[in-house]
Amino acid sequence: MPCYLDKRFCNQPCANTDCSRNFNDDVMAHARAWWGSDGEPPIDFSDMRTDECGFVPVSGR
Question: N or C end of the chain: smaller count of CB under 10 Å?
């Protein structure tokens, strides 16, 4: 089955919005628009935190 943008998003709460793997409300809105009204869109997730990704913990979590 295809997933949104054919790529994997990071499932960790991260404040680095410049990261192309950051999953946020805007990404979800675009995914829902792409998928239509057939339920929730297929989105691939994984823990992608590395020293190179620029992971920034979300404060308060």
Answer: N
